[in-house]
Design brief:
It comes from Casuarius casuarius (Southern cassowary). This protein is α/β, with parallel strands linked by helices and 302 residues long. The chain is built from seven helices and twelve strands. The strands form three sheets. It has a six-stranded parallel β-sheet with strand order 10-9-8-7-11-12, with helices on both faces. The longest helix has 22 residues. The chain is globular and about 55 Å long. 28% of the residues are buried.
Length: 302
């Protein structure tokens, strides 16, 4: 038995040593941005840090807890000279981080007053393969939208610098959330991308749909009254917010009809129930003919 145990244990110890060494490297918080509804953005720098789109890191703040490590998805693009995470204040640890960064104070905070941060990572996810397809469906549910902030930013940088060599030609983006207020920072990102694409006369590159799954009668009435306005009253985007849940069968059939003979990547960050639905739709809407349309499903659950 010991012959079978020694090898894996040695590899495990090596991996733990590498992670310990990596977590001891100096991290500098360069900027803290306070977003609405108690969400903060931490922009950081670390020597030798290299990331890909959609990856995540583990973060420890000794000023809050000397032992706790928490995973956060990277919301910056690899092309940026920093890496960032968005943290929503929902518990004791995040509240402690909020206060440690001086976000509870009105005056400007000097950089040297920022708390020490330890970072372990980055670690890979399925979202890294998004640039392997000409057409992709990105589906984010609630906080699962964060990996796609990194993806959409990176797509924009690549598109601006070398659009002709970018394999990705079309993005269908779906955002399902109970309440957009908690993620207004992401709506701002979409609004920026929407404006920039229109300025370059390529508004069709990104098609997006925002679905509010939790809404009441007063919201529906408000939506009906302002439906004819140019911009959506909830997000400020040209694309109107939809209510309820998508009809996935119709969505898959429409996309398959628009891109015959293509390999279409389907990327989800969301709950297991939605993953089962999208996986079944990917299989049922893929053709048996190798030259036909095929949906390739990739998921990241939480």
């Amino acid at each position: 038995t010991w012959k079978w145990v020694v090898g894996p244990m040695f590899l495990y110890l090596c991996e733990r040593l590498v992670r310990f060494w990596r977590s001891q490297q100096k991290v500098v918080i360069t900027k803290v941005v306070i977003h609405p509804f108690k969400t903060i953005e931490l922009q950081m720098m670390k020597k030798g840090f290299k990331m890909e789109v959609g990856q995540y890191i583990f973060v420890k703040c000794p000023a809050v807890s000397k032992l706790e490590w928490h995973p956060f998805t990277l919301t910056s693009a690899p092309e940026e000279d920093y890496f960032s995470i968005h943290v929503r204040i929902v518990g004791d640890w995040t509240e402690g981080l909020f206060n440690a960064c001086g976000c509870d104070k009105q005056e400007f905070q000097e950089a040297w007053k920022m708390p020490k941060i330890a970072v372990d990572g980055p670690f890979g996810t399925a979202s890294e393969d998004v640039f392997s397809y000409e057409t992709v469906m990105l589906v984010g549910a609630g906080i699962g939208v964060t990996p796609f902030a990194s993806v959409l930013k990176s797509v924009w940088y690549k598109y601006c610098h070398d659009a002709t060599n970018l394999k990705l030609k079309k993005i269908y983006f779906y955002w399902l959330c109970r309440d957009t207020h908690a993620f207004e920072w992401f709506a701002d990102l979409l609004q920026s991308l929407e404006t920039q694409m229109q300025e370059r006369n390529n508004a069709e590159f990104l098609s997006y749909n925002i679905y509010l799954t939790g809404w009441d009668e007063s919201q529906a009435t408000h939506f009906a009254v302002h439906h004819e306005e140019e911009k959506d009253v909830i997000t400020g985007l040209k694309q109107k917010t939809l209510y309820g849940r998508p009809n996935w069968e119709n969505e898959f059939k429409t996309i398959a009809g628009n891109h015959p003979g293509s390999r279409i990547g389907v990327f989800l960050c969301g709950p297991e129930g939605l993953a089962d639905t999208l996986n079944k739709q990917s299989i049922s809407n893929s053709e048996a003919d190798p030259r036909g349309v095929h949906f390739i499903f990739n998921k990241e659950n939480f």
